[in-house]
Amino acid sequence: NSAMDSARAAKRHEGVRKVYLIYRRTKEEMPADKEELYAALEDKVELKELLLPVKFENGILTCQKMMLDKIGADGRRNVVPVEGMFENIQINSVISAIGESVDTEFLTKNNIPLERNKARVNNSNETMIENVFIGGDALRGPSTVVQSIADGKITAEAIIKKEKLDYLQLPAKNYITIDQTLSSDIGKRKGLVTEQNYSDLFAEAGRCLGCNFICNKCVEVCPNRANVVIKTNSLLFNNTNQILHLDALCNECGNCETFCPYESAPYKEKITLYWSEEEFKNGSNDGFFIRENNKKIMVDVRWRKEHGTVLFDKDGNVKSSFGNEDGIENLVQLIRTVQNDYSFLIQ
Question: pLDDT band at residue 249, thresholds of 50, 70 and 90?
C-alpha cells in the first residue's frame, strides 16, 4: 500500500511525466489492497510485472526478469530469475517502497538508547534523554495514523505538565454529554478529503475526524452488515455511537479486526445481539437474547462471562437484574435502547 501511495503521489508531482510500479511478482500475488492497486492504475501509473531492480546508474534502472515458480509458505507464487534476461528502464529517480520498519540509525546517531530495536521511553513517550520525545512509527514500527495521533497527544500533555503551562491546558469538557452539533459536524467530515493548510492552524485542527467520538469503521467495512450503530442518549456511555454486533449475520471474515484503528476485534468483543437461544448458548461474546414471558420481557444476558437474566416490564422498566456486576448498567441501557428504538433488529 505504501508503494501505491508513493506512486500516486509521484504522479501528481509537477513535471513528472511517467511513473512505473516495478514488481518482482504479478499483480495477482501483490499484497497491496486491490482498491489501492486499482486506484494507482486509474491514475495512469504503469505496472511492470516480473521485474526485480538490481542496479540504478546514470539514469538507467536495470531489472532482472523473473518468472513464477512454486507456491510459497505465504500462499503466493515464488519467483526465480530468468537466466541472462534483463530490462533497462530510463528514469530519473527511484522510490524504494519494499517494506516497513524503523530506521534506527538516526536514533543511535543521536545517542537515544534502544531496547529490542526500538527507542526506550517512559509512559509519556519521553526517551532516556531528557526532553526528547518520540512517537508514531519511529517508536512503534508500522502502525496506524490514530496511534500516531495518540502518541502526539500523550507527548503534548506531558510537555504541558512538565513545563507547568496551566494556561495551555484544555478546558474541561465532558465528552460523555451528547453533543448533537459535534456529532453532526464529525459525521460530515468523515467523507470529506481536504488538503493540508499549515498556515491556518484552525483549518488543520478541523481536519480531525474525531475517531474517539465517532469511529464506526467496523460498520463501514463489514460486508454482511453484522455491525450496526446504536445511538444512545445515556450518560453512561463515552461515545454517542455504540456498536452492536449481530451474531446471525457474521461469517467471521475478520474485516472489522483488520481495519479497526484500536487493534480490536469487534466481531469478538462488541456487545452481541443473539436471535435464538441456541445462538446465545453456543456463543462466547458478551451479549443478550430477548424473549417475551407473561407480558414481561425476559432477556438472557452474558456479561463478562457471567450468565443471568434481566426482566423488563412492557414500558421498558427494569423489574429485576442478575446482579450488580461492574458495567451491567451500561448493558441494560443498551438493551433498553435496542428495544425502544431498534426493535426491527430483534427477531
Answer: very high
Tell me the per-residue pLDDT of 230-247, one tens digit each, with 9 for 90 and over. Answer: 987 665 666 777 899 999
User: What letters, b where the CB count within 10 A reaches 16 and e where it falls short, cover 115-140?
Assistant: eeeebebeeebbbeeeeebbbbbbbb
- Whether residue 292 contacts residue 300, with contact meaning beta carbons closer than 8 Å, is answered with no
Helix (H, G, I), strand (E, B) or coil at 285: coil
Q: Which residue in 60, 55, 56, 51 sits closest to 85, CA to CA?
A: 51
Q: Count the Cβ atoms, other than its own, within 10 Å of residue 104.
A: 14
Q: Is 183 helix (H, G, I), strand (E, B) or coil?
A: helix
- With a CB cutoff of 8 Å and minimum separation 6, the contacts of 271 are 242, 243, 244, 245, 285, 286, 287, 288, 331, 334
- The pTM (predicted TM-score) of the whole model is 0.52
Residues 138, 142, 144, 147, CA torsion sign: negative
Encoded amino acid at 297, one letter: I
Nearest in space to 287 (alpha carbons), one of 234, 240, 226: 226
d(CA 46, CA 198): 32
